[in-house]
């Protein structure tokens, strides 16, 4: 199969492109900056540019779509442009080019209305209830993609939850940096359970989704992917900090205070378009103080996928990633 | 209230209003507007609209009336399933047939199927408002006419709650009379049973309005609270705890939205026959007579009771038990007046129907077996031959060689002691027995004994047993609330107590006449509401005996002897009933384990030894301590007691072991010497950590500390010494040794859902609910029919059945297994088993391995999340190695968390450290894992769950 992977500059996209390539498929990647991957063919450009997208899908059988604006602040229209319109552009171009499989990489936050998620399965994306521009636009994009599922164009959505791995700039590096700067508090007692996904397991799930996309029960559906080993926020922080060789957070902030402060900060950062990541956002405060962990038994069954790397080993590899730097 | 309710002013019709509203002519001028019967809305929670139908039947006056009836099988059998029969359900005031929706729903699913026909009484619910007030006699007749029209046939069980219970009983009594009159003609109904809930069997003419109805029946108040307002309706619906869902309350109120709709509520209250001149008085008395006839006919009867009922209180339940002695009683611990709302109500009814109506004919029930499902496996067998509880006492007292030897020794705090010899104990027992009879204590009556261990308790207990009364023994460790629930629930007729206990009895309105014990002046006696003092009772008895009156023969071995209350550390305390024969067997089993008997004295402050000592002819020494707080026993007081009675055996509560060790440094040389002579040390009630036992052995080197396993229902079941525990080594759970003589231990294996089945196995290595068989197993639970039925519901293999012989089985609620050597290992409580997607985990083994990690003092294993994704969690107290107890909930650091994961071999989602785990008050050792689990669920969801303990 010839497979297009969008957003291959991030950790998950890059690893997925390489894994698909290792599986013997022809891989083409599309992203704005050179990814310099050994093997895959590279197309530079944004998914918001129709011409680049057309070029990228030409002669392709399948698309794994990871490109997105992932952040916690910033003007809403920017999220819409990349996450919603970009996906729409890609879908249209793919259909036109005769693509037959489309794996939409989404996020469990598309179905998270802010309350605790305790061992729940995959529930439908809900843009009206989702919190924050990222989750709202990803929810819209997932619905757009799944609506396109039809004979000859199999679409499924995969929602990896908190992907951890060496070289991750999204979460691991940020937590380590904040902890080093003493800016990483625990909300309440850090007791909320959260799921995480070691990057190799997420990659395996995306590859499985690509290969099983046309299966009955898979196309048209969304699947949450996690390691199936929830841990408390405090322990996740502590393990990441230990891997990075920085002290774990001990300062506790009440989650109520953090949520209020977070909303204010969020607005200020957006209003003044501040460059750096804000210290706290409402979205982050909610994410770090309420449980969100999942029942992935359906995902395992239908994608015929198992998380290969247990969390403990994942944290060890994370430490290796830091020391090897 | 003997007058008709005042005529209501013209009210506009509410939801009942239809074309026919107000147009139905009645036989008497209407006192309130008439409204036709209608069908209820189709969307009431829990109510299947297909059950509702309207039926016309002549009322008591022969006028056609329309009824709303819930009927789950109007066409009889469906799907080829034979119907077992029909439950004819009658609601009270101010409810309607909605009351029976749970029963209806479960009866439909139950096999064999029961048809539920639940009526809305006329003037009530969605039935017709005829414009007149209906009296009790008419209601009974109205119902009979309706049943006729419905054409019910086959088995019919009448079911009623509140005033509906009286109507249902009246109908059943009428049916009994009709079938007697015309055995081969007429009614096709076969009356098969009666189920009553929070209702009255009788209502004395002299009695005031029951509890909360007092205010409502005052003149002028009645319409204001019943029909003009919703007060009575809303108050009734506010009784259940936990509260009814708002939508359910709304459904109850739905047919009572207007004053016209509520007129029936007012008339119903006005029909409560208070006073002898009330028009419904004769009808009520007729129902009472009918209940007597039903009892005489031994109609299978189930009394289900919500104890938190402000209207039909405990005295009404006692009245039912008096009038229908063979009735099965089940108290729904937390239910109130609307007991059919209790989650266990329907299950209790259906199980009872299976066992009492379908499986066994009432005539086959032996006497005195009420509450015990005699048809179930494991039910009481004829008493085995053997010495009774009185024999050893009589022998010691009758032998001149031992008559003056000590039977009971009470040691004072200053080391002094009071000794009562066998002869004196026997004489005092006889005198008290004669005195109790003179006072009016009758065989079968229940006598609560709230007297600290010592000679007084022993004599009083034996006197109670001697006259055939039933001793109710509840440990003061239950606390005042627990004691109140126990004494009130047991329905005691007499309370014998020290001043503190009688003061509580008076303040908390415990039932029963009171007899004082201990130091009480005559003045205080009256203040405590006591009829007499034990000293006076004995004096009267002595006079009777001197005058030549003899005591009646000793009670039969099969007669009830005692109700012993469980400790309440694993749920509300339950009363456990033993017969005389079973009590004697229990004492012998205990004696064998603790090795006491003539010449083998015992030191113990555990109340049941007031019974065991004399039954075995063993001297019982009571040490100086606050018996309600075992932790107050010092090493010195224990040594003094051992010395005073030259005791060879010692029984200590686990908390006492801790304190004895803590105070051992203060022992004198003589005291150490006394303790060194002890040959048997026994501790029971809760697990005692091995290191503590090893230290105790240093004080009593001759004794191999024994920690038998058992419960109030079977005491003891297994026995184990410290050396055995050490030999057994580590395993899955706590090793409690081998079954004692006369006991068989089996397990009911757990299925993939963590539930224990009915089949019993004794193969090693199989985990399941521990089930104990033997002759000293309880007779039955008191007034807990459903609990009893579940506790004996087992299918033993023929070999196991043969091994237990005449004994009975008891499901302990513990999980565990047998090993190759025949030893029993306890793995926790069945209710605390955690079921994940991959495995069924019993807690104790995992906890022990967690506790082996440096930094963990005490651990609890619980599960969080839904079954398919459930995660294991350890909640622990930190030990000194981890810096001592934490000040607040803390997620254990990565090292400690990993160490606990490795030690337990489980992928724990979290290891949480807490300041303290919640434990039982009495032993501070049984962890309340249910509470820990609920707390962990909230905490790990990110909620503020507050402190755990």
Number of domains of chain B: 4
Give the helix level of chain A as a range of percent.
40-55%
Strand order of the largest sheet of chain A: 3-2-1-4-5-7-12
Order of helices and strands of chain A: EHEEHEHEEHEEHEEEHEEHEHHEHH
Contiguous runs where pLDDT drops below 50 for at least 5 residues of chain B:
1-15, 17-30, 361-385
Structural class given helices, strands, pairing of chain B? alpha/beta
Profile the largest sheet of chain B.
8 strands, mixed
Q: Number of helical runs of chain A? A: 11
Mean pLDDT of chain B: 89
Could you characterize what this model shows?
The complex is a heterodimer of chains A (325) and B (949). Chain A has 325 residues and is of the alpha/beta class. Chain A contains eleven helices and 15 strands. Helix content of chain A is 42%, strand content 17%. In chain A, α1 packs across α6, α5 (172-180) packs across α7 and α7 packs parallel to α11 (311-323). The longest helix of chain A has 21 residues, at 76-96. In chain B, 33% of the residues lie in helices and 20% in strands. Chain B has 30 helices and 35 strands. Chain A binds chain B through residues 116, 118-121, 188-193, 228-232, 234-235, 238-239, 242, 248, 255, 289-291, 293-297, 310, 312, and chain B through 837, 864-866, 868-871, 888-891, 893-894, 897-898, 907, 909-910, 912, 937, 939-944.
């Amino acid at each position: 199969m010839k497979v297009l992977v969008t957003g291959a500059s991030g950790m998950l996209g890059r690893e997925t492109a390489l894994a698909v390539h290792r599986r013997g498929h022809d891989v083409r990647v599309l992203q704005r900056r050179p990814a310099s991957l050994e093997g895959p063919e590279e197309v530079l450009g944004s998914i918001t540019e129709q011409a680049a997208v057309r070029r990228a899908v030409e002669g392709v059988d399948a698309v794994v779509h990871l490109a997105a604006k992932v952040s916690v602040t910033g003007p809403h229209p920017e999220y819409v442009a990349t996450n919603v319109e970009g996906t729409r552009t890609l879908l249209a171009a793919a259909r036109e080019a005769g693509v037959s499989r489309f794996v939409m990489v989404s996020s469990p936050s598309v179905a998270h209305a802010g309350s605790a998620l305790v061992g729940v399965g995959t529930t439908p994306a809900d843009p009206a209830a989702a919190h924050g521009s990222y989750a709202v636009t990803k929810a819209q994009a997932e619905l757009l993609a799944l609506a396109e599922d039809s004979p000859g164009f199999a679409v499924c959505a995969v929602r990896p939850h908190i992907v951890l791995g060496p070289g991750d700039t999204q979460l691991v590096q940020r937590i380590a940096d904040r902890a080093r700067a003493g800016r990483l508090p625990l909300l309440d007692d850090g007791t909320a359970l959260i799921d995480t996904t070691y990057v190799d397991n997420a990659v395996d799930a995306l590859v499985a989704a690509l290969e099983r996309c046309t299966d009955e029960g898979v196309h048209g559906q969304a699947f949450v992917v996690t390691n199936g080993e929830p841990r408390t926020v405090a322990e996740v922080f502590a393990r990441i900090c230990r891997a990075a060789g920085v002290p774990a957070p001990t300062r506790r902030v009440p989650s109520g205070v953090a949520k209020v402060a977070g909303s204010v900060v969020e607005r200020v950062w957006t209003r003044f378009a501040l460059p750096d990541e804000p210290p706290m956002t409402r979205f982050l405060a909610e994410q770090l103080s309420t449980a969100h962990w999942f029942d992935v038994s359906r995902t395992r069954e239908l994608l015929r996928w198992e998380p290969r790397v247990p969390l403990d080993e994942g944290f060890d590899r994370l430490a290796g990633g830091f020391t090897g730097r | 209230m003997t007058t008709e309710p005042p005529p209501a002013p013209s009210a506009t019709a509410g939801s009942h209003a239809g074309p026919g509203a107000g147009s139905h002519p009645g036989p008497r001028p209407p006192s309130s507007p008439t409204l036709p019967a209608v069908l209820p809305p189709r969307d009431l929670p829990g109510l299947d609209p297909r059950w509702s139908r309207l039926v016309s039947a002549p009322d008591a006056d022969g006028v056609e009336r329309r009824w709303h009836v819930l009927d789950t099988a109007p066409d009889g059998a469906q799907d080829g399933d034979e119907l077992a029969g029909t439950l004819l359900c009658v609601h009270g005031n101010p409810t309607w047939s909605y009351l029976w929706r749970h029963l209806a729903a479960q009866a439909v699913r139950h096999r064999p199927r029961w048809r539920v026909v639940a009526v809305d009484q006329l003037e009530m619910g969605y039935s017709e408002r005829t414009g007149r007030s209906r009296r009790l006699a008419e209601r009974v007749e109205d119902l009979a006419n309706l049943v006729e029209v419905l054409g019910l046939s086959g088995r019919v069980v009448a079911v009623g709650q509140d005033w509906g219970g009286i109507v249902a009983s009246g109908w059943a009594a009428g049916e009994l009379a009709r079938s007697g009159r015309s055995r081969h003609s007429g009614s096709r109904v076969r009356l098969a049973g009666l189920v009553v809930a929070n209702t009255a069997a009788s209502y004395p003419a002299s009695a005031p309005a029951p509890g909360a109805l007092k205010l409502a029946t005052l003149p002028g108040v009645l319409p204001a609270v019943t029909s003009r307002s919703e007060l009575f309706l809303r108050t009734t619906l506010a009784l259940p705890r936990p509260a009814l869902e708002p939508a359910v309350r709304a459904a109850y109120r739905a047919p009572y939205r207007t004053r016209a709709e509520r007129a029936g509520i007012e008339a119903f209250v006005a029909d409560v026959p208070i006073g002898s001149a009330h028009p419904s008085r004769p009808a009520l008395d007729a129902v009472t007579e009918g209940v007597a006839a039903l009892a005489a006919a031994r109609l299978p009867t189930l009394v289900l009771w919500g104890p938190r009922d402000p209207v039909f209180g405990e005295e009404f339940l006692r009245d039912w038990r008096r009038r229908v002695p063979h009735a099965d009683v089940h108290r729904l611990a937390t239910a109130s007046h609307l007991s059919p709302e209790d989650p266990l109500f329907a299950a209790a009814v259906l199980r009872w129907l299976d066992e009492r109506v379908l499986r066994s004919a009432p005539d086959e029930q032996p006497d005195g077996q009420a509450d015990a499902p005699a048809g179930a496996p494991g039910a009481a067998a004829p008493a085995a031959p053997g010495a009774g509880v009185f024999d050893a006492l009589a022998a010691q007292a009758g032998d001149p060689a031992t008559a003056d030897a000590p039977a009971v020794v009470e040691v004072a705090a200053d080391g002094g002691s009071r000794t009562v010899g066998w002869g004196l104990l026997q004489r005092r027992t006889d005198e008290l027995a004669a005195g109790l009879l003179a006072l009016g204590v009758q065989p079968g009556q229940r006598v609560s004994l709230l007297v600290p261990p010592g000679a007084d308790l022993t004599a009083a207990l034996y006197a109670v047993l001697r006259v055939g009364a039933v001793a109710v023994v509840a440990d003061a460790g239950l606390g005042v609330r627990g004691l109140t629930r126990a004494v009130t629930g047991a329905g005691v007729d007499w309370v014998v107590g020290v001043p503190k206990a009688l003061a509580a009895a008076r303040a908390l309105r415990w039932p029963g006449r009171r007899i004082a014990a201990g130091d009480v002046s005559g003045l205080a006696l009256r203040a405590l509401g006591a009829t007499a003092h034990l000293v006076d009772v004995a004096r009267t008895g002595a006079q009777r005996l001197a005058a030549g009156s003899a005591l009646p023969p000793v009670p039969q071995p099969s007669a009830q002897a005692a109700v012993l209350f469980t400790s309440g550390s694993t749920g509300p305390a339950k009363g456990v009933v033993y017969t005389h024969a079973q009590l004697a067997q229990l004492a012998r089993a205990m004696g064998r384990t603790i090795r006491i008997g003539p010449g083998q004295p015992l030191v113990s402050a555990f109340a049941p030894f007031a019974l065991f000592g004399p039954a075995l002819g063993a001297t019982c020494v009571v040490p100086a301590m606050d018996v309600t707080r075992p932790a107050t026993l010092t090493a010195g007081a224990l040594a003094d007691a051992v010395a005073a009675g030259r005791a060879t055996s010692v029984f200590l509560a686990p908390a006492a072991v801790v304190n004895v060790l803590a105070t051992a440094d203060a022992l004198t040389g003589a005291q150490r010497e006394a303790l060194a002579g002890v040959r048997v040390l026994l501790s029971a009630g809760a697990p005692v950590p091995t290191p503590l036992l090893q230290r105790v052995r240093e004080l009593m080197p001759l004794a191999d500390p024994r920690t038998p396993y058992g419960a109030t229902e079977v005491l003891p079941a297994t026995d184990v010494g410290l050396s055995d525990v050490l030999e057994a080594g580590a395993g899955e759970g706590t090793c409690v040794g081998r079954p004692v003589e006369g006991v068989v231990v089996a397990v009911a294996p757990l299925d993939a859902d963590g539930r224990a089945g009915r089949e019993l196995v004794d193969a090693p290595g199989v985990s399941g609910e521990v089930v104990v068989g033997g002759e000293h197993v309880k007779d039955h639970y008191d007034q807990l029919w459903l609990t009893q039925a579940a506790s004996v519901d087992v299918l033993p293999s023929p070999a196991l059945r043969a091994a237990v012989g005449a004994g009975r089985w008891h499901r302990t609620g513990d999980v565990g297994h047998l090993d190759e050597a025949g030893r029993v290992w306890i793995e926790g409580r069945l209710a605390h088993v955690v079921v994940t997607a991959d495995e069924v985990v019993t807690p104790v083994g995992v906890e022990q391995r967690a506790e082996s990690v440096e930094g963990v003092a005490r651990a609890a294993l619980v599960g969080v999340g839904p079954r398919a994704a459930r995660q294991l969690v350890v909640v622990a107290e930190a030990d000194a190695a981890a810096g001592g107890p934490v000040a607040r909930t803390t997620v254990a650091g990565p090292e400690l968390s990993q160490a606990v994961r490795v030690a337990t071999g489980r992928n724990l989602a979290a290891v949480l450290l807490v300041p303290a785990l919640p434990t039982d008050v009495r032993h501070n050792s049984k962890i309340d894992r249910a509470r820990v689990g609920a707390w962990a669920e909230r905490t790990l969801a990110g909620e503020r769950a507050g402190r755990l303990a």
